[in-house]
Structure formats: C-alpha cells, structure tokens
C-alpha cells in the first residue's frame, strides 16, 4: 500500500505545508488484466465504487498481464487488490506450476464470475478440433499468465505439447490481431464472455470456436477441482455458430493481507450493494452475486471478507 504524501516547501527558515484540498487520501491500487478482457473494465468499476463510497481512499486500476503477474506483485507489496483466476491463486499459495515456492501476503475476498476457456481459430486455418492444432501457430496467452497455465493443461489433455505447435505468447488483443492478419492460426483465451477481442475479430473475419472434447473435459474436472464444465451459448459471436462445450475457472478478487479489515469489509459491502453496476462495465459482471461469492474459493479468506460473509 502506498500513501500520497503532502509536499513541503522551504521558504527561508519556514516550512510551508502544501495541500490541495486539505486531506490526502491513501492510494488503493487495483491490478487487473489486458484492456480487452473483463478484468480491466470490472476493476475500473470497482475503483469508481470505492472512490464514491469508501472514505479516505483513492482507488486506481491498472492494466497488467493478469493472474500470475498480479499475485507476484501483491506478494512483493506492489498493489492492494487484484483480480486473478482461482486456479492460479491455488497454485500460488501451494508453490505449484509457475510458482517455485508458495506465495503469501494476500488472501481471498470473493469469487466473481466464470472465466470461460475459449479456443478460437480462423475458419481459413481449417482447425475444427483441438487435435487439429498440431503443427499450427497458436497463441497461448502472455508468458506466465493464468491463461498460459490453462492452455498447457488443455493442450496436454488432448495429447499436444508445446513441441507440437508453434507457441506464441500473446495477450487477447495481440492474439486477435494475429488471427486477423493470419499471422497465427488459433488462440486460447480465458475470459468472461463475450470477450471483446473475439467480438472484434468476428466482426472482421469468419472464425471457428473449438470444443473441448467431453471425455477430456470430464478428466480435467476430476483432476483439477477448480474447473467446471461450461457451454458457450449459441450465436454468441456469430449468428450461425452452434453452442460449444468447454470448461471454465472462476475469476476472483484478492486483497493484500495488510489491507485493513474494516476497509475490506467496506469494499465487500460496496460490491454487493452495487452488483448491477458491474454488468454495465462488462457482461460478465452479470454473474457477480452474493449467492455464488464463495464458489471455487481455493485460498483462505481475508478477515474482512470472512466477517462480511458471516454477517450475511
């Protein structure tokens, strides 16, 4: 956590305190994700609500490479709140996958919405199944991101390793541009639906949404308890698209452990007193609901969040 400090000006032997409006608020930094995903606009809405309802705090949201980077930053005291995938949070506190040792310094606040695993390919690539990706150029998310972790698991479950494809480490926006320019053949994205990057791509080019095979999905759900089966609705990106079977993880909000318990409690109140406002920021915000707020929570709750749930 960081604080905006009042500046001083020395005039002769007198020190004059410079203030803009009398009081200086404590900064609250919210780490989000890429600007075309759901984290960024939802983080922006959260910042707005905090600034309107939580006294003495000035919240700002920042675009990042998302889950893995966000948790590492929180552990390094670079931020106060962060959005992340629930699977990534699980790996972080247990020192698994991309985390060489367990991370600490942050706790869970609430689950927010399902983050859907979306495999999108250009129609011209001829890709119709995950197995068709072999030998193709595939964007798997930013290196070290939660999307990249999921991409590896999905590909490996279908018998494909990074040695079998040309790996491109790209975020949503760059992957969509690469597909549009036909510099890559396919991309795996993990985000709330509809995803802006895919919507923009579908407006310019015919695309194929690739299914996660049912038997593979069942195996992954059994192996990784944070996965849930999900269906991408018919016509979400193109009118003639059928429904697509896939998987989802949960987007969640975490807080730095040093963030005051009362402040976290107030932020929880702000979120669940204003759930409708998140849908205006991004359609995935329609899933923000107190009834599902603890689904897939893989780490200990912050005391402020725990107290909030106990009071409901």
From TrEMBL:
<protein>
    <submittedName>
        <fullName>TAXI family TRAP transporter solute-binding subunit</fullName>
    </submittedName>
</protein>
<dbReference type="InterPro" id="IPR011852">
    <property type="entry name" value="TRAP_TAXI"/>
</dbReference>
<dbReference type="Pfam" id="PF16868">
    <property type="entry name" value="NMT1_3"/>
</dbReference>
């Amino acid at each position: 956590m960081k604080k905006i400090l009042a500046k001083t000006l020395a005039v002769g032997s007198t020190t004059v305190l410079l203030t803009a409006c009398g009081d200086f608020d404590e900064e609250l930094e919210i780490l989000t994700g890429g600007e075309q995903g759901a984290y960024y606009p939802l983080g922006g809405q959260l910042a707005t609500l905090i600034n309107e309802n939580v006294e003495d705090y000035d919240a700002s949201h920042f675009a990042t490479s998302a889950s893995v980077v966000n948790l590492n930053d929180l552990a390094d005291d670079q931020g106060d709140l962060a959005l992340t995938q629930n699977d990534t949070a699980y790996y972080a506190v247990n020192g698994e996958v991309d985390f060489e040792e367990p991370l600490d310094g942050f706790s869970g606040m609430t689950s927010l919405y399902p983050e859907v695993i979306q495999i999108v390919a250009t129609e011209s690539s001829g890709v119709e199944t995950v197995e068709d990706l072999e030998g193709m150029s595939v964007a798997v998310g930013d290196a070290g991101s939660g999307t990249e972790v999921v991409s590896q698991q999905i590909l490996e479950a279908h018998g494909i390793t990074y040695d079998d494809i040309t790996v491109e480490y790209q975020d949503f926006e760059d992957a969509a541009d690469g597909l549009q320019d036909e510099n890559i053949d396919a991309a795996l994205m993990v985000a709330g639906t509809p995803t802006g990057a895919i919507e923009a791509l579908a407006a310019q080019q015919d695309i194929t949404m690739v299914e996660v095979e049912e038997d593979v999905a069942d195996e992954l759900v059994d192996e990784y308890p944070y996965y849930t089966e999900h269906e991408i609705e018919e016509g979400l990106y193109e009118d003639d698209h059928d429904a697509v079977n896939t998987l989802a993880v949960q987007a969640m909000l975490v807080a730095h452990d040093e963030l005051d318990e009362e402040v976290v409690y107030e932020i929880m109140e702000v979120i669940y007193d204003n759930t409708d406002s998140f849908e205006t920021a991004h359609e995935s915000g329609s899933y923000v609901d107190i009834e599902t707020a603890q689904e897939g929570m893989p780490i200990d709750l912050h005391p402020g969040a725990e107290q909030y749930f106990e009071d409901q």
